[in-house]
Design goal:
Elements: E1 9-14, E2 37-43, E3 55-58, E4 64-68, E5 71-77, E6 81-85
Antiparallel strand pairs: 1-2, 1-5, 2-3, 3-6, 4-5
């Protein structure tokens, strides 16, 4: 991939969520919420708090969706990131 976010932006790829509940009920696609966890794929030059490979949590309606080389990504402002999962 040949994409470098500028400034305080990061490029993330959504983490797949489970299709079933803890009790085994299958959740249909139309009932799922938009994922709010993602793996960081690339970071801008001004980003210090997040590293490539981290998993981040972001706001429900944050970011701009982008398709690169057949894959779906989201470009987030650093201010849209709520935290890093360790």
């Amino acid at each position: 991939m040949n994409f470098k976010p500028l400034g305080e932006r990061i490029l993330v790829k959504s983490v797949a969520e489970s299709n079933t509940t803890a009790s085994g009920i299958i959740i249909p696609d139309n009932a799922k919420e938009k994922p709010n966890r993602a793996e960081v794929m690339a970071i801008g030059s001004e980003v210090k708090e997040v590293n490539v490979g981290n998993t981040v949590v972001f706001g429900k309606y944050a970011g701009t969706e982008l398709a690169l080389e057949g894959q779906d990504y989201i470009v987030l402002e650093l201010s849209d990131v709520l935290g890093v999962i360790s």
